[in-house]
């Protein structure tokens, strides 16, 4: 249980003179639900970009299951079992929901340059997509263009596409942003369910979600990890209170 | 959906019957239409399905054409392959050149991609005159169709059926391609390359492959052109060729499967008919393109599919009471516009200006009538037809908008 599936060692990231990530060490244990919180501009999204291959770290190491992934291309990182969702919805707007999820599912089945098989005859792909659509509660929208979904439906689709490759580690970047109370509750349930046999790293601003969902929480402030611990420990950590949570937790 | 196979069958039967239905000059036009249709379909795989706008498809069309002529001339004119299989040579060269060009150009997207394709095509165009052995210089390279498999290939009818076979086969393959995982991923390339990358796909390799397939079918179209005219010419590498396939595809509609083919066939037919009648037929083609892009941005076929697929909200169907006056208005305005353009073309032609400089303003005979350039009536009649037609269309549109407002 305690061996880390994702480990960051002394990771730095600068954009020119801007030093965004200033030496982050983080261990995400296999199977845990780990949340990263921190004030706006702390570098949470940059951290995700580094882990998922969007950016290469300026220095330091990022290890997935003991293998260095820092500096790899996004596709390579994905193929090693780490998938992510995006804070700003990142889907295929001009094709149907079904088609969106099918593109996401196909990769896992080794389908990429395949031009000799009809995609509609790939029954296992179709079944998986249909299962996923049901789980996302998008059944009635399967043949709607993704661009015509409501905002929260697009967020669900975003999560669904992240899940589709059946990754070992999932990075969710503010999955609940812009959702209503009811949608948030459903999505928390969904995330709980999908995280059952996987590792989850999540950035979220909704503190009630973070504290109920996460096994452990890390606090990132100005590019530095100031604390990591269970929700209870974080709640009681004086440094965290001062730096970030303040009245929110006290209240 | 039962309608679709029936329509396809009907279209194929009409295409098969064409040699009995039309004159020999029209049969030649039909061959050109088929080739243009295939070229547009190949172009639109890249541009419409995969969202990569190429400005340099003349290169792959031209390379396919030259490869085929060389294949025809191989072994002292015996031919590398039997005549019916020669298009494979064009397709193969198209594929190989497409892999190379695609590798470089798909490293970038959008405008940069378009610029690289343009630059590569211009590079070839600039290089070709210096490679006389390969591209034949100013004169190009000519060849001769050898008889094969009991066919002489000396008549237009035989060439028509050979072209038809390859075009239908290629379009069929392009259709099947869209049903495969690779074809679906082409849509993903168009919609969101970044997301595709994060789903674990090799976006660059996918783009290169789609580019190469598009170039392969373009090369096949070039090959059919060479077989048809028994020659390949330096002019086939010109930017003009890249532009025409782009305009044709957009006029038909790049996002609907057969849109580009129908657009290209229509515009080639239009060119064939009008180039005999008027010197400014290219101007008309340009005007048609601008009008289609302004008022039917999905293309002619795209717009028709949209109207009849029932995707539109209720109450927006076709109303004859609006459509007929609209069409009448367009016809009157078009007539006025054409008369004006033709009159201007004649008045501004070099011969006429020479006469006019001498103080003479002779009357112009056109459409079986004589027109006095000095008389205001000559200009007022077509101008008022243009204005009247446009007023009619605008009036109908305004009424339709008011009705929609009322029912909404």
UniProtKB/TrEMBL annotation, chain A:
Residue spans crossing the bilayer: none
Family matches, as CDD domains: ABC_Mj1267_LivG_branched (cd03219)
Superkingdom per UniProt: Bacteria
PROSITE patterns: ABC_TRANSPORTER_2 (PS50893)
Matches recorded under SMART domains: AAA
Cleavable signal peptide: none
Name assigned to this protein: ABC transporter ATP-binding protein
Organism: Borborobacter arsenicus
